[in-house]
User: Fold this.
Amino acid sequence: MTRWRSAACVLILMALALGLVLGHVHRYKEISPVDESQHLDYLIRAGQGHLVGLGDLLGQSTMRLETCRRLDAAFDVKIRPCVTDAAEQLDPASFQEAGFNTAAIHPPTYYAIDGAVARIISAALPGEQDQLTTGRVAGALWLMAAVGALWSMLREFGADRLVASSLIALTISAPTVLFASATITNDGTALFCGALLIWAVLRWERGRLPAVIVVLAAALCAATKVTNLVVVLTVVLYLLMRCDRTRILGVFAGLRRRTRHGVGIVASDLRRLVMSVAVPLTAVGVMLAWQLVARSIATVAISEIPMTQRYTVSSFPVGPFVDAWRQTFDPLFAPYLAPFLRTDAVHLTSGLTAVLLVVLAVTAMVRSAPGSRTRILSVAALCSALLAGPAIVAFNYVFQRVYVDIPFRYALVVVPAMVAVVGTTLGGPRARILTAGYAVAGVLSVTIAFR
Assistant:
């Protein structure tokens, strides 16, 4: 009976995820200013079995869609009126970024999956649907998968059904998460990848999951978007802090001594140490493999791309590097909302949810027992959120010699770890009821805006 109830909760939450994405797609007709044209073009080509390389220009289908759907940005005034005639050739140079597909830096996993799903949706739905609509609807797949991964993670961490359901409903209805899921962008993979890897590590640590699953989850993070590697940092910090540091240092110093705990703890610590190396090595290996492929199919050097030239810096940006932690420490903060979501209710609930996520994660860290999973995962999640911004600034400079402001959404992959520890602070009857009520209010604030 318990499993049936859990399955029912997951199905209801997945239906909610699908409904939220469909509602957003229905109301938001314009093309997102967050590089959605580039992501759309990549999705169209990947769905046809083609890779996008540096130097590739936007395709005619993408440009025609942009002329008709319009761009939700000031640049839209420079785009010509709707062009539907397939015989008329549009000039890529008249579009943003001089028509270059700047999404070419990303691995093709997200685009290939969503491109294939979009083609299936197009064939299944009655009437003619454009590729922007079907591509956006395909994003529901990632949000529904995230529901399943979040549920497994929260239950593994000890949350009951009411708390797990409430936290998942709040998370998937957060405007930052919903915008990433209901527009075409590989940011929509962050929630699923983060929850999957955290769940896999927690499960493996208890001896309930093979190590290969953890490694594959890390590979998926790297194969979807490089910023998803932030959760790899979370996992590495968690595993290292779970080790008995005194015992490990003693082993390496040749001072290993038997204690009343026996050698079993050393064995478990060695498992964690090995995994703390295997996870980042796998993720970095996948990332480097894609970089080799990307270089082999590039037709121009990255320094020749107009966007790269615009953000190129002559020296390391020390000031922005130091300040970048502010950009990722509160990943649910939503600096941009689709026009229909700019209501007082959405602003209130989304802002409060973003603040509560961090405040309750800190509370979980302070209130939990030293050395406990909750304390250590709290520290790992908060530290990786703090370090994500500076790390990405350094990565961009080292590999591309550029500096760009780091968006809050780049740390979305850490949200599942924060949600997991937040669940441990909501065990009391009043807290459970208040959380459920607030979740209903958060979902309603968004769904009412769909009208």
In short: Residues 274 and 343 are 49 Å apart (CA to CA). Residues 140-451 form one domain.
